[in-house]
Amino acid sequence: MKYLFIIFLIPFISCNNSQKKAEKENWKTDDYINQKQILLTNEYRFGQSSSSGASAFLVESKNNTSVICTAKHLLGDAMGISPEVSSEDFSEKLDYWITYPRNNKLSNDTFKITELINKEINSTDIILMEYDNIDANTIQVLKPRLTTIKKGEKLEIIGCEYSDFSCHQKEYNAVMNEYDINGVMIIKSTKTFDASGFSGAPVIDKDGFVVGVLSGAAEFEGEYFLWVEPLTKVKQFFN
Questions:
Q1: pLDDT tens, position by position, 94-122
Q2: What count of other Cβ atoms lies within 10 Å of the Cβ of residue 73?
């Protein structure tokens, strides 16, 4: 299937086929949105450039530790960071970066970023970061799914529209459509919504495993498509 529209990054909003898929996560109940805080937002500064907003989440990495995950394009013009910060220069140029829930309905945890983990230069729109936990950690840590997502699989995006000031997090349903030539997932939302602020939001499968990071969106012929960087592109940090 060919698309004639242009992919764009969401401003102010990130396969191992033989891996056996685990069972459903215990926290993934019908009302998990109001029981387990998952979605985080960001506030950060590099030199004279600062920004706030977009999305992030905690994901389980090696040795049962967790890291902050978000979209790499938060380091560039899409979030008002100029000049763009390269992965190599992240630690040197970082003044501060904190991430926390949009409101304290379920948690008031704050995380202070200490270091970028995946420093290699590539086009993958995912960054993983180490953190110090300023407050007690009550945020739900997601486990990664590192298997191929099949066409038609049901997925959920966890995010907040900027216009919804009372939102702590909401779920938006989608289905897997296809992988593009660069291995990016193209998923189709079941409804149109304002995806501003969703950059870096987690996309999970029906069992609660995170499959990727939201990167961009576009509407075409009345249907709403979103681009998701799969975590398989950084699987070396999870295996």
A1: 999 999 999 999 999 999 999 999 999 89
A2: 25
**pTM of this structure:** 0.91
Tell me the CB-side half-sphere exposure of residue 45, using CA atoms within 13 A. 4
| φ, ψ (nearest 5 deg) of residue 164 | -95, 85
**Gap between the Cα atoms of 115 and 93, Å rounded:** 11
Q: Write the CB contacts of 200 (distance below 8 Å, at least 6 apart in sequence).
A: 13, 14, 42, 54, 55, 56, 57, 69, 70, 71, 74, 213, 214
Q: What is the spatial distance between Cα 124 and Cα 229, in angstroms, rounded to a whole number?
A: 7
Please list, residue by residue across 174-187, b when 16 or more beta carbons sit within 10 angstroms of its beta carbon and e when fewer do. Answer: bebbebeeeebbbb
- Cβ count within 10 A of residue 194: 14
CA nearest neighbour of 132 among 66, 85, 181: 66
What is the torsional sign of CA 13, 15, 16, 22?
positive
**11, 37, 28: which is closest to 170 by C-alpha?**
37
**Tens-place pLDDT, residues 63-85:** 889 999 999 999 999 999 999 99
In this structure, the number of other CB atoms found within 10 A of the CB of residue 192 comes to 12
CB-CB contact of 79 with 73 (8 Å): yes
Between CA 51 and CA 238 the distance in angstroms is 29
